[in-house]
Amino acid sequence: MRGASASTISALPSRVVINTILPMNVASSTRRQFASDNYAGICPEAFAAMEQANAGHEVSYGNDNWTFKASNLIRDVFEINCEVFFVFNGTSANSLSLASLCQSYHSILCHELAHVEVAECGAPEFFANGTKVLLLPGEGGKIDPSSIESAVKKRTDIHYPKPRALTVTQATEVGTVYSLQELEQIRVTARKFQLRVQMDGARFANAVVALGLTPKELTWQAGVDVLCFGGTKNGLAVGEAVVFFNPELAREFDYRCKQGGQLASKMRFLSAPWVGMLKDGAWLRHAKHANTMASRLAAGIRSLPQVEISYPVQSNAVFAKMPRSVVEAMHERGWKFYTGVVTPDESRLMCSWDTTEQDVDAFISDMKQLTAVPIPV
Ligand SMILES: Cc1ncc(COP(=O)(O)O)c(C=O)c1O
After folding, report:
1. What pLDDT is stored for residue 199 in this prediction?
2. Cα of 377 to ligand 1 centre, how many Å?
3. Is residue 163 within 8 Å of 195, Cβ to Cβ?
4. Is the pTM of this model over 0.85?
5. If you average pLDDT over every residue of the chain, what do you get?
6. Is the pLDDT of residue 3 over 50?
7. What is the mean pLDDT of residues 230-248?
8. pLDDT higher than 50, residue 25
9. Is 343 exposed, middle or buried (0-12, 13-18, 19+ CB in 10 A)?
10. How many A from CA of 38 to the centre of ligand 1?
11. pLDDT at residue 29, as a whole number
């Protein structure tokens, strides 16, 4: 097995720093961490459903009862007859769904911090056969709606890749959420320029509970054509659902999934956990819990000297600027978290469905001791 530093650093920009003191197998068995919501295990509801799905034989390639049930539960959640596909991860969900919105000569507009731009190794361009990703600015990880119009109007000649899709991340990469008003501004502009809207919802559950709105209000009623509905960070072992609210755009998406290596032969193990999560609202409970833990963490951090929170804490992420010596000392105490995901001096702290109040308080207690010592000048 590879060590934590090798596998995690390789997935992030080289300036991202994580401590390398403990190999992953030691650290993960002894302490819950704030490095990523991917560090958490499988939540009990998903695990139980997976266990049930393991009884006996089932039809393969998605023609099974679990997949049928999970798709219908997603239709219930969104209160619409949408098309649903289960894939292994967020990169494929984003890339394949964006590819289905574009031709190769089109472009995709996204925020400059978007996962599709900074953390998918060019997969959206690859799966869309060269569709170019164009970057938009905006405070707090959110697209400034006026920048959409500027990007579309910047060039309209035949020599420039024609903007055709817009992707928004909800919750964003820095843990903020788009309000309904912000989504409406985006919807109006997108429609004006005939841009199809894709939502990267790796943390969609966190956004739903943070905003206190219904899934339909935040998606198809807000002009979203396709949502990548995140399951992994919410408590699944693996898997995201690609949800098309505009069925025309889903045409032959099954072929795209197969060609992209995303058609699971034992599909029931991707779909059954969704049944466990959705049937009695566990997905919302877990997201709410993770958000609450992030608020607790933020409150603790705000009480400390020398540390500053960088973005409004609206979902399960806290970004904090702390002295380098404190980062290093926290790592020495065994805490794992990334620094430099967004800017070199910001550390990212993520809460998960299984983060406890004790985890948060222990982290804050260590930070308190370390920040009480003035930094030598
Ligand atoms: C905003 C966002 N989108 C998508 C993903 C999914 O990526 P992966 O391909 O690692 O599942 C992530 C994971 O970190 C993410 O943070």
Report:
1. 98
2. 39
3. yes
4. yes
5. 93
6. no
7. 97
8. no
9. exposed
10. 9
11. 55
Two tokens, residue 9:
């650093």
323: which residues sit within 8 A by CB, 6+ positions away?
306, 371, 375
How buried is residue 5: exposed, middle or buried, by Cβ count under 10 Å (0-12/13-18/19+)?
A: middle
Å from CA of 57 to ligand 1 middle: 32
- Cα(90)–Cα(38) distance, rounded to whole angstroms? 12
Contacts 24+ apart (CB under 8 A), 157-163: 160/107, 161/105, 161/106, 161/107, 161/131, 161/132, 161/134, 162/105, 162/106, 162/107, 163/106, 163/107, 163/108, 163/109, 163/134, 163/193, 163/195
* 40-92 pLDDT per residue, tens: 999 999 999 999 999 999 999 999 999 999 999 999 999 999 999 999 999 99
Assess whether the previous peptide bond of 53 is cis (omega < 30° from 0). no
**Is residue 202 within 6 Å of ligand 1 at its C-beta?**
yes
Say yes or no: CB of residue 90 within 6 Å of ligand 1. Answer: yes
In this prediction, residue 10 has a pLDDT band, given cuts at 50, 70 and 90, of very low
- What distance in angstroms lies between residue 97's CA and the mean position of ligand 1's atoms? 14
What's the token pair of residue 152?
């579309």
* 91 in contact with ligand 1, CB cutoff 6 A: yes
What is the mean predicted confidence (pLDDT) over 319-334?
A: 97
Instruction: Quote the tokens at residue 283.
Output: 């997905």
Residue for token pair 């109006």: 188
Which strands form 308-309's sheet, in the order they lie side by side?
308-309, 317-321, 346-350, 338-339
The phi, psi pair for 338, rounded to 5°, reads: -90, 145
pLDDT tens-digit series, residues 126-157:
999 999 999 999 999 999 999 999 999 999 99
> For residue 82, which phi and psi values (nearest 5 degrees)?
-90, 165
Contact 119, 12 (CB under 8 A): yes
Are the C-beta atoms of 109 and 167 separated by less than 8 Å?
A: yes
pLDDT at position 14 is 47
Element (H, E) at 325: helix 324-332
Q: Is 141 in the pocket of ligand 1 (CB under 6 A)?
A: no
Distance of CA 328 to the CA centre of its chain: 27
Q: Which of 89, 92, 115, 200 to mutate to test the pocket of ligand 1 (most atoms within 8 A of CB)?
A: 115
